[in-house]
Structure formats: structure tokens, C-alpha cells
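REQUEST ID: PR-0412
SUBMITTED BY: lab tech R.K.
PRIORITY: routine
TASK: structure prediction, single protein chain
INPUT:
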Amino acid sequence: MDEDIEDLLPALVALRRDLHAYPELAFEERRTSGVVAAALREYDLEVHEGIGGTGVVGLLRRGHSPRMVGLRADMDALPMREDADRPHASRHPGVHHGCGHDGHTAMLLGAARQLARAGRFDGSIAFIFQPAEEGRGGAREMVRQGLFDRFPCESVFALHNWPDLPAGTAATRPGPIMAAADRFDIVVRGRGGHAAQPDQTPDVVLAASQLVAQLHTIVSRRIPPTQNAVLSVTRMSGGRSHNVLPASVELTGTVRSFDSAVQDAIEQAIHEVAAGVARGSGATIDVEYTRYYPATVNSPEHAQLALEAARSAGLEAQVAAAPAFTSEDFAFMLQQRPGAYLWLGQRGADHAAPLHHPSYDFNDDVLARGVRWFAAVAQMALR
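STATUS: complete
OUTPUT:
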């Protein structure tokens, strides 16, 4: 199979760079899903489109076993400008494959082609091409629309390129691997008034400032030191004039955690802190708290299988020392089926930019490694 992968690489690089040049945002991946569906048909797979909006599933059957494994890649890009002079740079202003989903899609297509030609397994493999990973919950939507009812996978696997690791390495761990992602939106309201007469109206700027300071004590003072969590206020907006006390100030922020009990405690603490500041300032404070991505939690058995497949694919496999505080909507699939999520090292001399950076580009040197891992983990899961 390795010789076939080397023969495939030029076409795979060209495909990846084509996807990079024409990036599409969440639930708008019509061209991308068309490219994916056409390639899967070329490989003689059974193709199902429109799952979760623009999602595509390719099904490869072999032998007589009813067992099925799922392999997932995300397809969407980010709403950001690409800042790089390269031949395959984005043709769509303000849209950039700054997270490497173009590479993930290309690697899973490569694995579909290789397994269709030379795979050794008894059962079925569902190649899941998912829309809208970047904050829009495409995995959740695929699940809602019956992904695992139509394709009853007994386990499911995914990878993400990881610039923190050098090319040629891979890592994962049992248990949490990526954090739950929550969002809070807070509005501090008063009456507004003249800045020279602060005694006549609640000072919502002062109240909001006190609230920010107290919110940032929640993790350090209310969560046990043995638990991991992050709370960050990321936006504060209010007022337009130097001599007017505004009637309202808006705050936005994010919470990241790995344990549902910690998640509950932080949400409750935010409401309690807001209520206390409201009482002390005379302002009215409204809190909206949204849990949009759960923690990504690997099954210990399948994390071990993912590492075994990485070694089989020629990668230096290691157990990750700690999970990441970034989030991943593959979590919704792992809530339905056991499986594992792997970090694939991609850092090289010319590929040091972090994820979500304007100059980021996927490292094509790791395409073959990803193809080998996808193929290996599917065959091992069905052995």
C-alpha cells in the first residue's frame, strides 16, 4: 500500500491545494462537498450527500461482517483573511483554511482511495466528511439528522494536524483530549447620565470593571486546584462620549473545562458574582450562558488503538501529557460512539505558524502519514 500512497501523493497535494484556494465557511461547503462526493464515486464507494446540510458520507463494504467503523474529517474554513503569498492562497477574500481542514479532507479521501484498492478488512468503513466544525456544530447536526442510525458505526476516529508537534509524530491520550467550550454574554444596565453627576445613576462602567475582576477569580478561588479550567473575558463594550455615563455595558467571554461538575460550578459562580455586583452597584445585570461544545473524551481502549495505528503508520506515537484547552465538535460524535481523536504533528521548517493564524498553511509533507493512519486505524478497528 505504501508504494500506492507515494504514487497518489502528487494528486493528493494538488487536491489539497485546490481546496485551500477555494475555502468555504460553515454550512456553505458546497463546492468542497462536491469535490469530495465526486472523488468517492471515482473510488466506487457508495455516496450519501446532504447529511447535516453539506456533509458527505462514503461507504466502503467488504466481506460479510455487519461491523462498521467511522472515520471523520472536517471541511470548513475560517472567516479570516489569509496573509501569505503562495500560489494556492485563498481566492475568497476574508475566508482562509487557517486550521488545516483542507488537509484533513485530502487525507481522508486518500485513505478512502487506498482502502478501496487494497484494504484488508471484513465489514464496512464510513468516511464521514463533516461541515461546520468551526463553532457551528456540524457534527451535532449530522448526529441529529441520523448519522449513526444510517451508518451504525461501533467506533469512530478523527485526527487534527498539530503544529505544536513536529512532523512525523502523533499523540493522544485516554479520557479528555479537548476542552468543553462555553460562552457567556453579560449586559450591565443602568439609566445613563452626565459624567459630572455620577451620584445620580448607577455607574455601569465601574460595575462592569468590578465584574470582570471578580469573574477572573472564579477559577482560582472556587475551583479545586486539582481541576483544570479557564475563564476569559474577551470583549467589553459600552459608551461613546467622554462626558456621558452610558446606560449599558456588554461583556462577552469563554469558559473551557473538562469535567461537567466543574462546568456547572463555573456557570453557577458567574451568576452569583453578577448578582453580587448588581446589588452593590445598583445596576441590573443579565447573564446568558451557552454551552456550545462538550469536552472531547477518548475511550481508553480506542486511544490505545489510535496510538497502535500511529506506530503501524510509521509515526512516533506518544501519550499526550495533558489535554488542550481548545475545543472540537467531534465531541458530539464521541458522545454517541466510543472512539478517539489524534493529534498529528505537522511542524516543519516552513510550517511553524499556529492554527488560526493568517499565514498558516497545512504541511503537505504529512499527507501520506495521515492517509496511513486513517487506513491503519480502520483496519485495526475491524480486525
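NOTES: The longest strand covers residues 155-166.
REVIEWED BY: pending
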